[in-house]
Specification:
By secondary structure, the protein is an alpha/beta fold. The chain has one domain: Response regulator (Rossmann fold). Helices cover about 40% and strands about 20% of the residues. Strands 2-1-3-4-5-6 form a 6-stranded mixed sheet, sandwiched between helices. Strand 4, helix 4 and strand 5 form a beta-alpha-beta unit. Helix 1 packs across helix 5 and helix 2 packs parallel to helix 3. The longest helix is centred in the last third of the chain and has 15 residues. It starts with 5 loop residues before the first strand and ends in a 9-residue tail after the last strand.
Length: about 140
């Protein structure tokens, strides 16, 4: 896989979002945008077509991350739920490629992103990170 991959982070906890951005960029990924607003996330996604969107399920306001994931999936953007609500993530598994439950470390997130982007590109050679739940059955399986 050639880096950088373009990522969108939709998270309402500012410190968490900034930490994720920093850690992912330190590992060579391009983070195109940080936002907590679904409308801003959709505008950015339509404009730049990220390779993966990291979406918290519970966002402040009236919209939640599941509704956003439905919209992102409709325009071909894969979603990784990043949430402290793993039961809601599993219930919404049809709109995301996977879920990483909080609390997680930046290293856990980098490993999950690296794994999912490789799988989305058809590379099934890496082992799945232990805390990552993969939903998308169309992704190639590791050999």
């Amino acid at each position: 896989m050639n880096k950088p991959q373009i990522l969108l982070i939709v998270e309402d906890e500012v410190l968490t979002a900034m930490s994720l951005k920093s850690g992912l960029e330190d590992d060579g990924y391009e983070v195109m945008d940080l936002t907590s607003r679904p409308g801003e996330a959709m505008a950015a996604a339509r404009d730049r077509k990220p390779d993966l969107a990291l979406v918290n399920i519970k966002l402040y306001g009236h919209n939640d991350g599941i509704a956003l994931a439905v919209e992102l999936k409709a325009i071909g953007i894969p979603v990784l739920f990043i949430s402290g609500q793993p039961n809601r993530a599993v219930a919404a598994r049809s709109v995301a490629v996977g879920s990483l439950a909080k609390p997680y470390s930046v290293d856990d997130m980098v490993a999950a992103v690296t794994y999912l982007l490789a799988r989305l590109a058809g590379d099934a050679s890496q082992p799945r990170p232990k805390d990552l739940e993969v939903f998308d059955e169309d992704l190639p399986e590791a050999a």
